[in-house]
């Protein structure tokens, strides 16, 4: 029986993918060379990442076994795409509850989790403005550059400056009550801090010989981070060395 649980609340989608020689201009019609469908959605991606990375052998094709239970709350359609999507997640050992979750419900979940002293990892993508009272209930906040800008009323152009100082935004989140803040910077790496650090840290991303596809890279990072947090059974504050190791390993 699993002794620990990670519950993901988010989207489940089926991606419809066409391959064209280039991105079409507005109003232009192009002939695609191929068409395919595939499972996706930020919530589903993160759930699958958690499920696979919680195993001793993430790439194993054997029946999933883990001491961490992975549960998914999301909305799946009753059309031809819904059943295969749910079946695929079930095959990864994910316990699925299909529910429609509007923003007010998500906010209530965050409030309830805080009252129950349940650690919350929030990855607000796509980013929407959050009430100030939500932040003290967030144990781990993971955002990218664009999301960090939108949540703090800054322009994306401002934060994308090569020498931008992320300490101001990170301190804003910490002052609002967030315990741990991580801002992913794509190929540059990530900046991070928790409420007990004197200043934010920076971890450069590991370089790879060839980047094939960055789709769901951020979701995979979030899933890997969540699994490590649960495995270590922390008290809510992640140590600096622990964050360094985790980001450097999982963000590559």
TrEMBL record:
It holds the Pfam family PfkB. It comes from the Eukaryota. Its EC number is 2.7.1.15. CDD domains: ribokinase (cd01174). GO terms for biological process: D-ribose metabolic process. Residues 100-231 form the Carbohydrate kinase PfkB domain. GO terms for molecular function: ATP binding; metal ion binding; ribokinase activity. Keywords: ATP-binding, Carbohydrate metabolism, Kinase, Magnesium, Metal-binding, Nucleotide-binding, Potassium, Transferase. InterPro entries: Carboh/pur_kinase_PfkB_CS (IPR002173), PfkB_dom (IPR011611), Ribo/fructo_kinase (IPR002139), Ribokinase (IPR011877), Ribokinase-like (IPR029056). SUPFAM superfamilies: Ribokinase-like (SSF53613). Belongs to the carbohydrate kinase PfkB family. This is Ribokinase. It comes from Glarea lozoyensis (strain ATCC 74030 / MF5533).
């Amino acid at each position: 029986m699993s002794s620990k649980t990670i519950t993901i609340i988010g989207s489940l989608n089926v991606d419809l993918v066409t391959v064209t020689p280039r991105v079409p201009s507005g109003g232009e019609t192009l002939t695609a060379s191929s068409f395919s469908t595939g499972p996706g959605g930020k919530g589903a991606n993160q759930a699958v990442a958690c499920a696979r990375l919680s195993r001793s052998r993430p790439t194993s094709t054997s029946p999933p076994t883990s001491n961490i239970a992975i549960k998914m709350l999301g909305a799946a359609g009753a059309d031809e795409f819904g059943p295969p999507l749910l079946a695929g997640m079930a095959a990864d050992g994910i316990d699925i509850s299909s529910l429609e979750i509007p923003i007010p419900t998500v906010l209530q979940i965050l409030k309830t989790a805080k009252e129950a002293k349940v650690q919350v990892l929030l990855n607000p993508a796509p980013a929407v403005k959050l009430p100030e009272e939500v932040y003290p209930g967030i144990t781990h906040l993971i955002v990218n550059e664009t999301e960090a800008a939108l949540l703090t009323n800054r322009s994306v152009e401002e934060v994308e400056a090569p020498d931008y100082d992320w300490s101001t935004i990170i301190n804003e989140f910490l002052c609002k009550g967030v315990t741990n803040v991580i801002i992913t910077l794509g190929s540059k790496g990530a900046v991070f801090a928790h409420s007990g650090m004197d200043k934010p840290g920076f971890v450069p991303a590991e370089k790879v010989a060839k980047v094939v596809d960055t789709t769901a890279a951020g979701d995979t990072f979030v899933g890997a981070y969540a699994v490590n947090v649960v495995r270590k059974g922390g008290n809510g504050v992640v140590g600096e060395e622990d964050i360094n190791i985790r980001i450097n390993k999982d963000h590559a």
